[in-house]
Write a structure and sequence with these properties.
The N and C termini lie far apart (55 Å). 41% of the residues are buried. The chain is mainly β. The protein has a single domain, classed as Immunoglobulin-like (Sandwich), CATH 2.60.40. The chain has strands spanning 21-24, 56-63, 66-73, 92-98, 112-122, 128-133, 151-158, 161-169, 183-192, 196-199, 216-220. The strands form 2 sheets. Strands 1, 4, 5, 6, 9, 10 and 11 form a 7-stranded mixed sheet that branches. A 4-stranded antiparallel sheet has the order 2-3-8-7, with no helix packed on it. The chain contains no helices and 11 strands.
Length: 221
């Protein structure tokens, strides 16, 4: 039997060769009532390393009260496709947070959380933002189910896109303790049926939806 041909490294997504780390700045007065994040809170677009052009501006901030995200998507010609009965398939933001930043495990622990935030899909008319929790496939132990008002979302939709503001309170993040543990495991996915998929750490070639070793490190500064 002949030796197998060596794998061409040029066929592999460049992001897989790096362990990413980024700083997230603290913001005051983060809560469900309302906030706005300026460019100081912008998360780098790591997908550009794979030659992908980002379509979403993603920002993130933290405070002792919880973690906030702000996502702006432009260049659309149709409303976001969002259904509260099909959260995983809907246009919007999904985030994965490991409050213990454990990167040497391949199955999620109870400190790993998955949340989904949609710009539409809720309310009687389906035009209200949605915030909910999703289970992580193959988790060794699931995070505690969130209670009402521990997650929140609001959105502004225009003819060309939307801005989504999402907040996860400290109560929703089991193990969240910025003073003692100022590092998080983290990744996100912005899904859009018109614009595509944008991820933070590794892309869809890897099981980032269920494997914490595929997530990046965030430092709460």
């Amino acid at each position: 039997m002949s030796d197998a041909e060596p794998l061409d490294a040029s066929l592999l997504p460049p992001r897989q060769f790096f362990r990413f780390s980024a700083d997230v700045k603290r913001a005051e007065k983060l809560d469900a009532a309302g906030f706005s994040l300026d460019e100081r809170y912008w998360l780098p677009s790591l997908a550009e390393l794979d030659g992908q052009r980002p379509f979403a501006d993603v920002r993130m901030a933290w405070s002792p009260s919880g973690i906030a995200w702000q996502v702006t998507v432009e260049g659309k010609t149709q409303l976001p496709w969002c259904r509260d009965s099909r959260l995983e398939d809907s246009d919007g933001l999904q985030v994965w947070v490991d409050t213990r930043a454990t990167f040497n495990i391949h199955r999620a622990s109870r400190f790993c959380h998955r949340f989904v935030f949609l710009p539409r899909g809720g309310g009687p008319a389906g035009d209200q933002a949605v915030a909910d929790q999703l289970l992580i496939n193959r988790a060794r132990e699931n995070a505690r189910p969130v209670r009402p008002r521990e997650l929140s979302a609001r959105a502004q939709t225009t003819a060309s896109g939307y801005t989504l503001w999402a907040f996860a309170s400290a109560a929703a993040l089991g193990g969240y303790d910025p003073a003692q543990q100022p590092r998080l495991g983290f990744t996100y996915a912005v899904l859009d049926r018109q614009r595509g998929l944008q991820t933070f750490a590794l892309g869809p070639e890897f099981p980032y939806e269920e494997d914490p070793s595929c997530w990046a490190e965030l430092r709460l500064v």
